[in-house]
Give the backbone structure.
Amino acid sequence: MNIDIHAHYIPKNCVDVLDDAGRKYDVVKIAKNDKGQDILFQSGGLVRNDKGQSKGPVIQKICDPEQRIKDMDATEVDMQVISAVPPAAYYELDGEACLWFSRRQNDGIAQTVKDYPERFLGMATVPLQAPDKAIAELDRAVNKLGLRGVEILSNVAGRDLDAPELMPFFKQWKLWMCPFSSILRRSRGLIG
């Protein structure tokens, strides 16, 4: 079985909210390209691949499970582990606002997994800048929604993952031992 364990996803219930929040907080936004296709912008720039090229019209591919399944079939991928797009972690927001968006994303990912259980597994996102809220949301996402783990970024509003104020989350996570994935994010100038 071929499993893609790193597949970013925007649930359909989050597309409009993602754009609204992106415009309000100057993070991820959705815009039209010259062909009228939806594309993602991040912090004022076009979302690009590692070669600096535009990722192009990604909204349908990143939001539509039916399109994903077609693409998976074409590339012989049997299953994807889906998780939020990194900029939508919203660690720059206050904890309550981020919790609201994390819950919405987790609900959408869980619904996709429920609708296509043979094709998708889900990872949660949590408001890590507010460890108490992150603990509660991870508990809900794993134990109520059935998500399999959590994806976190390596920098939380300017703090590295070893920051003392984040330790309550990691202590609780260690007790649960659910899988997690960490996405590298610029941190105190250590990564160019």
The domain at 3-8+65-183 is CATH 3.20.20.140 (TIM Barrel). The two ends are 36 Å apart (CA to CA). Confidence is low (pLDDT under 50) at residues 43-57, 187-192. Helices lie at 15-25, 59-63, 65-74, 95-115, 131-144, 167-176.
